[in-house]
Amino acid sequence: MAGSEFIGVTLLPEYFQSESVNGVLDNLQNRAGVTAVTTSPYVMQPADSQSGFREPPIDAGAGKVRRLDRPLWRKRELRTRTAPSFRPDLRLYRGLRYQPPSPDGLTAEQGPMVERFIQTARSRGLKVYLQVQAAIPPGYRVQFGKPELEDIPRLPDGSIPKRRLSANGSLASPHIREYAHALIRDLCRQYPDLNGLRVDWPEYPPYLLDSIFLDFSEPARREAEAMGFDVDRMRRAAAKTYARLHGDLDDSDLSACAEAGSPAEARRRLLPDSAGLADWIRFKAKLVESLHAGFRKTMDETGAGHMELWSNAFPPPWNTFSGMDYRLVGRYSSAISVKLYTMHWPMMLRFYGDQLRRTNPGVSGWLLARALVRLFGISDEWTPERLEDLYYPAPDEPHPAGAAAQHRKIVQAQLEAGETPVYALAHGYGPAEDFRNRVETAMAASRHGCWINRYGYLSDEKLDIIGTAAGHG
Question: Which of 459, 410, 411 is nearest to 435 (CA)?
Answer without folding.
Answer: 459
